[in-house]
Design brief:
By secondary structure, this protein is α+β, with helices and mostly antiparallel strands. Helices cover about 35% and strands about 25% of the residues.
Length: about 220
């Protein structure tokens, strides 16, 4: 599985990353998993966060990368990869938080390049109306690990290379992001519900707004 440091290096090569204080979440434990959460200001891009979780004697690993472009008019990028019980689950979701549409054909073409990998149906969710077609999910055994590592790097680079325009209306752009973030908090889900149960709804909202999404 790609290290989150590797993915941050890819972003930092294009946008300078400056750490944001997330010490309040050091050592956070939820449902038997220990979390490590970091956030960064990406100059010229927006907010970047990473979250890793390890638990059950090393039998389960989960990594998350979130890019919320607040300075350029790109969609919100959310990457999750989960290794558990010999299964590798890869979830790449891209959400329409843009003020103007942009050309995402390069990301869709990359998905086609890897269409030999086993797709994973995530089912229906409240946010499907803003989830873009370049989103994709895979699930398989160790035979797909190497291909998913390659796809992860290529996909991130493809996202960062999308046509970019500076955000003209920052308040309107923030509202687009808030629709998704507040929706997570309102509608819940496996991750959101676990945090709410462990640290309470107020602290969970702060975690999502401040650390994970920067809105």
């Amino acid at each position: 599985m790609n290290s989150l440091t590797e993915l941050l290096d890819i972003i930092n090569a294009r946008y300078q990353l400056t750490p944001i204080d997330t010490n309040a979440y050091n050592g956070l434990k939820v449902n038997g998993m220990k979390f490590d959460i970091k956030a960064y200001k990406a100059k010229g891009l927006g907010h970047v966060s990473i979250m890793s979780a390890r638990g059950f004697f090393g039998l389960m690993k989960m990594d998350t990368l979130i890019i919320n472009p607040t300075e350029v008019d790109l969609p919100l990028y959310s990457y999750d990869r989960i290794l558990a019980m010999g299964n590798d689950t890869y979830i790449l979701e891209v959400y329409d938080t843009m003020l103007e549409a942009t050309d995402l054909s390069s990301m869709e073409a990359l998905n086609s390049k890897y269409n030999h990998l086993p797709l994973h149906d995530l089912g229906a969710h409240w946010y499907d109306n803003i989830k873009l077609p370049c989103s994709i999910s895979f699930k398989g055994k160790k035979q797909i690990y190497a291909d998913l590592d390659k796809f992860t790097v290529e996909n991130l680079k493809s996202f960062l290379a999308l046509p970019q325009q500076p955000v003209a209306d920052k308040e309107a752009k923030e509202q687009k992001s808030l629709y998704y973030v507040n929706g997570l908090l309102e509608h819940g889900g496996p991750s959101t519900d676990a945090f709410t149960k462990a640290i309470g709804p107020g602290a969970t909202a702060t975690l999502f707004h401040h650390a994970l999404f920067g809105v």
